[in-house]
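Researcher: Let's do a round of design. I'm pasting the structure tokens now; please hold your answer until I've finished.
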């Protein structure tokens, strides 16, 4: 016997063998079981989704004789063994008239067809007219068919099938029960192909089946035909490499590799992947389209993980990738990809356009947004956030080191002199800022006891009254007293160099500094950084560094931090959660979690050190206590109270009331601004 292609060999013969189209199957089965049969059915849908198959199964249900020859013998489960069922399966049932409307478009053909409608069926229970591609009939043919289609003889059923129902006249559509068949999703195609190949005894790789399922584009017949071709191409096996070579399509794993490089913000790897792709001569426009499709799936995975499709068999991979991106990055990359696709027509070549689009994604990535190592999905509605990487990496570093990383000027001001003078000589003015410097100490790193003094150079100016104080009392030789340390680091504007501050100090202060520099050598045995912070408080500190920071003091000292931009906005949405003297933990409003970046955490830590609160700072996102307000909420509340007071004052003003009474004036409260607006966080 000659070979029969898989599409015909595995054509469903009953409703229960039908793959997909459950909505149509349910309606037809219920109509057959209840005896509520219409005289005309219209099946619409793309190619290869089962229109003709459904029509033939329905014809068998109408003419199966396993349960009797009368109307009671109609069933939704044809036996497949009676003469009528076998004849329909073999294509020789005389009462099933299949018409190809594409080849019989003339009105004469339709009239010839309708001349035999009046005659009773020869072999079966009903005479069934199956008209395929009915939209190809001419207007005259449709007009000739209308009357018979509306009121056919009781023994006649019309089954119409078309891929383009928009071309059918409304008069035809109104006379039929229309069923729209859906495209087959890749998951269903892969499942069916695996079942068919297992029954055929043919080995296959699942990834190869996913390639076939995507290439079929919703058509089961196309999938079966491509499977036949893949079996022949792979010499009886269906392998991923063979199918990819046969289809000539881009391997989806290359697209995922590009997205992974984006997740790692790795530009060299990104260009290397493009170079590897170029060796295969792909369509770079299609590569960018595939990347945009992956980014769309990432956005869906971040918001609604359960809604991610498994069209490529990579659902788990997509979910893992989605947790490595922020929502802002995904949206930005998608927008750049879509715009880059439109710009490809103006690029020198397609590869250049793809590379520039990918590099643009990295170049325009928000620098203040962190790169999460693993973000729980979905992103919205999460009750806790991730701890930024900055505090963890700086757990063993001093506040001066963290500040130096973000502020080169501060780092240079904290650096000790490379060649300090002998102990018995007066110290230069710039050296006097660091009273604890060793006469013969190492140039770098700076000793721990210099950190508070170095931090005091950067804060904003305050009242320089402490500089005018009298001579400082004597202090132990190895440790300067608090009164002694204050004149040496007297606060000046940030633009004023340390030497200018020291030049304005009385001669008695220089003598004290000289005495400090003549301190004994064993300064190396000073306590650790934490102990030095507790011993030597900042001169400008609103609260000494050895005092724990509570939330009330956080609110009071917020404006003195001198923060601005995104950093101020981040800190303004935080409340103090814990402070043990070395580690300060702030809890961040979850709605602002995207701003929790290393650079902002470092700036807040530097600002706190500038007012004498030298801590390792950790900012964690989480639900805020209802009874505690953030600096932003406090500023909003104060602003609202001041606005209400201003409105009340205007309403009590006799001149305003006179205008209202005389001219019917109305006070627009939204335009009222207090005379001295409260600072906003």
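Researcher: That's everything. Go ahead.
Model: Designed sequence:
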């Amino acid at each position: 016997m000659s070979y029969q292609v898989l599409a015909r060999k595995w054509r469903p013969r009953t409703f229960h063998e039908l793959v997909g189209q459950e909505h149509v199957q349910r309606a037809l089965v219920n109509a057959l079981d209840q005896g509520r049969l219409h005289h005309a059915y219209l099946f619409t849908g793309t190619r290869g989704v089962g229109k003709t198959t459904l029509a033939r199964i329905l014809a068998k249900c109408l003419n199966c004789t396993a349960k009797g020859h009368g109307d009671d013998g109609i069933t939704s489960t044809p036996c497949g063994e009676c003469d009528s069922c076998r004849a329909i399966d073999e294509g020789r049932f005389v009462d099933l008239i299949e018409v190809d409307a594409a080849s019989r478009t003339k009105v004469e053909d339709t009239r010839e067809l309708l001349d035999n409608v009046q005659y009773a069926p020869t072999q079966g229970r009903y005479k069934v007219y199956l008209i395929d591609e009915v939209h190809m009939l001419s207007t005259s043919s449709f007009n000739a068919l209308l009357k018979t289609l509306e009121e056919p003889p009781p023994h006649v059923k019309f089954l119409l099938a078309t891929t383009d129902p928009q071309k059918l006249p409304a008069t035809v559509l109104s006379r039929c029960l229309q069923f729209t068949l859906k495209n087959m999703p890749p998951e269903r195609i892969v499942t069916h192909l695996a079942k068919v190949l297992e029954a055929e005894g043919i080995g296959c790789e699942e990834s190869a089946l996913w390639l076939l399922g995507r290439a079929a584009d919703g058509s089961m017949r196309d999938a079966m035909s491509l499977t036949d071709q893949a079996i022949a191409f792979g010499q009886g096996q269906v392998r991923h490499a063979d199918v990819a070579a046969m289809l000539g399509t881009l391997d989806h794993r290359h697209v995922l590799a590009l997205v992974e490089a984006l997740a790692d913000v790795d530009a060299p790897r990104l260009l290397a992947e493009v170079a590897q792709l170029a060796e295969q001569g792909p369509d770079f426009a299609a590569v960018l389209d595939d990347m945009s499709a992956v980014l769309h799936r990432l956005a869906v995975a971040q918001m609604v993980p359960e809604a991610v499709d498994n069209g490529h068999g990579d659902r788990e991979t997509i979910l893992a990738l989605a947790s490595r991106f922020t929502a802002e990055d995904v949206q930005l990359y998608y927008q750049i990809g879509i715009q880059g696709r439109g710009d490809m027509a103006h690029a020198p070549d397609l590869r250049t356009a793809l590379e520039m689009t990918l590099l643009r994604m990295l170049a325009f990535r928000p620098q203040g947004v962190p790169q999460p190592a693993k973000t729980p999905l979905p992103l919205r509605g999460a009750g806790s956030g991730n701890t930024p990487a900055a505090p963890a990496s700086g757990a063993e570093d001093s506040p001066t080191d963290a500040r130096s990383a973000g502020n080169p000027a501060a780092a240079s001001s904290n650096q000790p002199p490379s060649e300090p003078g002998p102990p018995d000589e007066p110290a230069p003015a710039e050296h006097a800022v660091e009273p604890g410097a060793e006469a013969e100490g190492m140039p770098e790193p700076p000793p721990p006891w210099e950190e508070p003094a170095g931090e005091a150079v950067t804060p904003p100016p305050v009242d320089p009254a402490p500089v005018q104080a009298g001579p400082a009392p004597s202090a132990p030789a190895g440790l300067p007293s608090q009164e002694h340390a204050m004149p040496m680091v007297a606060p000046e504007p940030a633009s004023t160099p340390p030497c200018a501050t020291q030049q304005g100090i009385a001669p008695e202060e220089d003598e004290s500094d000289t005495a400090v520099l003549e301190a004994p050598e064993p300064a190396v045995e000073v306590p650790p950084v934490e102990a030095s912070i507790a011993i030597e408080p900042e001169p400008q500190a609103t609260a000494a560094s050895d005092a724990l920071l509570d939330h009330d003091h956080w609110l009071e000292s917020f404006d003195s931090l001198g923060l601005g931009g995104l950093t101020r906005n981040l800190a303004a949405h935080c409340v103090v959660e814990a402070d043990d003297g070395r580690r300060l933990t702030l809890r961040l409003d979850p709605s602002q979690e995207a701003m929790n970046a290393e650079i902002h955490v470092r700036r807040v830590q530097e600002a706190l050190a500038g007012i004498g609160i030298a801590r390792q700072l950790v900012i964690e996102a989480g639900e805020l206590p209802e009874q505690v307000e953030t600096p932003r909420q406090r500023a909003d509340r104060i602003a609202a109270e001041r606005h209400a007071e201003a409105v009340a004052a205007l309403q009590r003003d006799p001149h305003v009331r006179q205008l209202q009474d005389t001219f019917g004036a109305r006070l627009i409260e939204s335009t009222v601004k207090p005379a001295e607006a409260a600072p906003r966080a």
